[in-house]
Amino acid sequence: MSTVQEPTPRWSTLASKPSSSVIRDLLKLPAGVISFAGGLPSPEGFPLDEIAKACQTVIAKEGKHALQYSMVEGEIALRREIARRETQKGIPTEFEQVQIVSGSQQALDLIARIFIDKGDKVLVESPTYMGALQAFDLCEPEYVSLPCDTEGLNPAAFTEEVCRGAKFAYVMPTASNPTGLTISEERRKLLCEKAREYDMLLVEDDPYGELWYDQQPPASLRQWAPERVIRLGTLSKILAPGFRLGYVIAPADVLDKIAQMKQAMDLHTATFTQLISAQVFSEDLLVHHLPSVRERYKTHAKAMLDALEEFMPEGVTWTHPTAGMFIWVTLPEKMDATEMARDALAHKVAYVPGEAFYAGSAVEKNHFRLSFVTVDPERIREGVKNLAEVIRLRI
Ligand code: PMP
């Protein structure tokens, strides 16, 4: 019998690029570990009954339409509901301004493809969302990292030199991933004024804006500069990440380019989940659901903040989020949170080392991200106690 020769893969340059495995390895968690490393929303918050009801209505009312191909821009019913919800939040929005995408992660990819050529300047917060860096990296930009302080991105970072020629600045205004920080209204306004002054686009990524604890965050950057803000939203955190539904609200010329690019990538986003979501929104099925998600996240955040206060040694600081899912911890400068992650695992607790959230060479190693929404409050306390012991041994 002749032997079959293994094929020689002739990978593209892109596929051949080495990708960092440090974080991936760390996240392969052994059993029994209390994981603050995940970025998933709490499945306890998935509105199963509401979705089951909407699903039945869609099948009964428009089943054939729901299973058919659709338009690249997205289903009008969902675009209308999203425009209505955005308008309710204070920014008048028409459905024509809304493009549906397969999760806001796809929006990040599309934005990279329509704006970035190799070597182009892109401004990012430091630290920033790891998934945005992964999406942008494929188009090989030159990043400029904008330093953040305890109130998030400081508009003072937008100088003429920094902004000159930049394709866009990528900003998370509310409950940033990873820091949990929310940018104040005054700073939002100033960022927009600077973007106008230096003729720059702002990509506003806002997956956590509805997950506030006590008080609604300030309005979208669109309020201050609608003509230069590309706003990304998602249903992942308020409905179901498995639906893979996000949206882009942007000026018409940007939307046109996004639609053209998306057509080439995947024709359109799944019709079925779009219609189910439109149904959920049109019947206001989330009216009771969203407040309970907010309450749960607030309780978990408090449990973690209380535990940090109780157990962390002197010299360790952390952010105090008012929305979202993350707390950012800063160790004394000499410490390395990537190295320490292995000790933490030995003490049955996991986090994401901060280095994953920095662009290019602007890496700081003395931070880590804690996610608290998928761990019960008693386990949060136990996990933070373990973590504090690990830190105490190294400090
Ligand atoms: N942006 C940020 C800041 C995120 O945290 C996430 C999810 N972790 C996304 C975008 C992607 O979300 P999705 O694709 O599920 O909409």
UniProtKB/TrEMBL annotation:
Residues 45-386 form the Aminotransferase class I/classII large domain. GO terms for molecular function: transaminase activity. Its cofactor is pyridoxal 5'-phosphate. Gene3D superfamilies: Aspartate Aminotransferase, domain 1 (3.90.1150.10), Type I PLP-dependent aspartate aminotransferase-like (Major domain) (3.40.640.10). It comes from the Bacteria. Transmembrane segments: none annotated. It holds the Pfam family Aminotran_1_2. InterPro entries: Aminotransferase_I/II_large, Class-I_PLP-dep_aminotransf, PyrdxlP-dep_Trfase, PyrdxlP-dep_Trfase_major, PyrdxlP-dep_Trfase_small. Keywords: Aminotransferase, Pyridoxal phosphate, Transferase. PANTHER family: AMINOTRANSFERASE (PTHR42790), KYNURENINE_ALPHA-AMINOADIPATE AMINOTRANSFERASE, MITOCHONDRIAL (PTHR42790:SF19). This is PLP-dependent aminotransferase family protein.
